[in-house]
Amino acid sequence: MLKSFEFCIPTAGTKVPAGPEWLHEIKLDGYRLRVERNGDRVRLITRGGYDWTKRFPWIVEAALKNRQKMFVIDSEAVILGVDGYITARISIPSRSKI
Q: What is the CA radius of gyration of the chain?
């Protein structure tokens, strides 16, 4: 059974930390999602608590291909072009249009 997880909220710093215990990632302009897998069930949850699983079936498919059967990933969903650069921010209709 998965436990409750909160999103990691980034904070501004004055310098980049150094050392082998630090991992760094590029800030991408996408949508914050938590990918939750529990067996054959995958859910994509926004910071606001909305279930966006049906909006990103390719993310669900990728999560199901992972050998781990239970995990939570705090992530950002973006669309990358074939060159690896962001081509567009993901366009999601407002809740009033769903």
A: 15
